[in-house]
Write a structure and sequence with these properties.
Elements (H helix, E strand, L loop, with lengths): L9 E7 L6 E2 L4 E6 L4 E5 L4 E6 L6 E3 L5 E4 L35 E2 L5 E2 L6 H10 L17 H13 L45 H10 L28 H21 L8 H18 L2 E9 L1 H13 L8 H15 L5 E4 L2 E4 L5 E3 L1 E2 L5 E2 L2 E2 L7 H16 L2 E3 L8 E5 L18 E5 L3 E7 L2 E15 L5 H16 L5
Parallel strand pairs: 4-17, 13-18, 18-19
Antiparallel strand pairs: 1-3, 1-6, 2-5, 3-4, 5-7, 8-9, 10-21, 11-12, 13-16, 14-15, 19-21, 20-21
């Protein structure tokens, strides 16, 4: 069970997208986990074959609990399938039909022929199976003809309208799966998550809503959710089933007690409840201020060279691949964290533990209020274009509460950027157990001395909030100077 921040203690396995015996590859989405903050798509961390499912759908387990096992592909006689597709003893290989790759890659048969499997991930295959869609009738709109989620959704809509699924889809009607999309409802009811092997359907709902539903005896399958993709929110549960006045009072009291207990154990509140979000933020910030001796530094960085390089690079790039200055700033910060490791790590058991990689936590302001801090893993290895793509992805997924397990990797250092709101500088509060957070303000033109003459240059104020137990001011100053040096040579980022 992945962890989404230091305060998360458990998660609910919503549904599996693969079965034992299926071939999986690194990066494939294999399951969906529900937390009180967001739904997390769990990505496979290695290539292999799905082994044993250890946690069934609908079960809530603590963070760190193994969900399933992955076996090396060489340990299985076929590429994908179950025991029924294994090669019988004594039967020649030519009698066995070539297997299909889960990723939709051609698998060569013994006679040198190849079958082109459907270009789709396990998630898309599951969605198509639930909707009764034959993937061979679809035209993939993704790279290399890959079938994406929007293709399946369009086929579902076309089937309801009586339009043949094989009808070509106009470009303006297609939405790429990697672009933010508006939550859709089908057949007038919110989307429900099903599993072919499950006796009952699992409703899409936040962990907190599930907790309230269990204690109040509400069946989530009968609740109309107001969240993304029809997800049931905590505020949807109290009005889901009419109860008598005494029962309502008891349920309200129970919910209050559960909320207090959740806060005591550090469980995070659902993001759609502004009051609960503020309480969680207050608890985390109070804990940080009470236990971490902060020290603060600030530095003004000349952004002239960085912006000139960025302008020239964007001029040669297509519109979809253009970058903003934040990508350069985050690259410079990640590389500085690698150069000055005393600020990259965690304070645990009264000592500092430096991290071997730079996992950058990005503070994202949510539209409904509050913040979320998803992670960009191995940020120090990303070039500016890759950093721009990663930044777009985590911000979009955080604001739609659809995070991936890679977004929940424990951050080793965090960044907060309020430049887009016109703020000149921001001093962040350290997220325990990290030991530093860097703040960036807006890039503005300011008067300054340039080669002994008064001039006007674009400048940026960078701030550092650091844990005095792990480092001193001299180390923090070296870190900020390293950030500035990298931004003077953007072509080397």
């Amino acid at each position: 069970m992945p962890s989404l921040g230091a305060d998360m203690v458990e998660g609910t396995l919503l549904h599996w997208l693969v079965h034992p015996g299926d071939v999986v590859h690194k990066g494939d989405v294999v399951a969906e986990v529900d937390t009180t903050k967001a739904a997390i798509e769990v990505e496979c961390f290695d290539d292999g074959v799905m082994g044993t499912i250890l946690v069934p759908e609908g079960k809530t387990v603590p963070v760190g609990t193994p969900l399933a096992t992955i076996e090396p592909a060489s340990d299985r006689p076929v590429v994908v399938g179950d025991a029924s597709t294994a090669i019988p003893d004594g039967q020649p290989p030519s009698a066995v039909k070539p297997a299909e790759s889960v990723r939709g890659e051609p698998i060569s048969g013994p006679d040198g022929t190849a079958e082109m499997a459907h270009h789709a991930t396990p998630l898309i295959r599951r969605l198509a199976q639930e909707a009764g869609i034959d993937l061979t009738t679809l035209h993939g709109s993704g790279p290399g003809g890959r079938i994406v989620r929007s293709d399946v959704e369009y086929a579902i809509d076309a089937a309801q309208r009586g339009t043949p699924r094989s009808e070509p889809i106009a470009a303006q009607d297609r939405v790429r799966s990697d672009e933010p999309t508006k939550p859709r409802e089908r057949l007038g009811t919110p989307e429900r998550v099903h599993h072919p092997s499950s006796p009952t359907a699992v409703a899409r709902a936040s962990g907190y809503a599930r907790l309230l539903a269990r204690t109040s005896g509400v069946d989530l399958a009968n609740v109309s959710g107001t969240g993304p993709d029809g997800a049931v929110r905590a505020r949807d549960v109290p009005t889901a089933a009419p109860v008598s006045e005494p029962a309502s009072a008891v349920a309200e009291s129970t919910r209050a007690q559960l909320a207090d207990a959740a806060r005591e154990i550090g469980a995070e509140a659902p993001q759609h409840d502004p009051v609960a979000v503020r309480k969680v933020i207050a608890a985390a910030m109070t804990r940080s201020k009470r236990t971490v001796p902060h020290y603060y530094l600030s530095s003004t960085i000349d952004m002239d060279a960085a912006l000139r390089w960025l302008e020239e690079t964007n001029r040669r790039a297509p519109v979809s691949a253009r970058m903003v200055s934040s990508a350069l700033v985050l690259c410079a910060m990640a590389r500085a964290a690698r150069t000055v490791p005393a600020l990259n790590g965690h304070w645990l058991d009264d000592e500092f533990h430096p991290a071997s990689a730079v996992h950058l936590g990005v503070v994202v302001s949510l539209r409904g209020g509050g913040i979320m801090v998803p992670t960009i893993p191995d940020a120090d290895t990303l070039a500016p274009p890759a950093m721009m793509d990663a930044l777009r992805g985590v911000v979009a997924r955080a604001r739609t509460a659809r995070l991936r397990s890679s977004d929940a990797v424990p951050a080793t250092i965090s960044v907060t950027n309020l430049g887009e709101l016109g703020v000149d500088s921001v001093f962040g509060v350290i997220a325990v157990p990290q030991v530093a957070i860097v703040g960036f303000g807006a890039v503005t033109t300011r008067p300054c001395a340039v080669d002994g003459l008064l001039g006007v240059r674009p400048q940026l104020t960078a701030t550092l909030s650091a844990d005095h137990r792990a480092s001193d001011g001299a180390v923090g100053a070296r870190f900020l100077n390293t950030v500035a040096e990298h931004l003077q040579q953007p072509e080397e980022l």
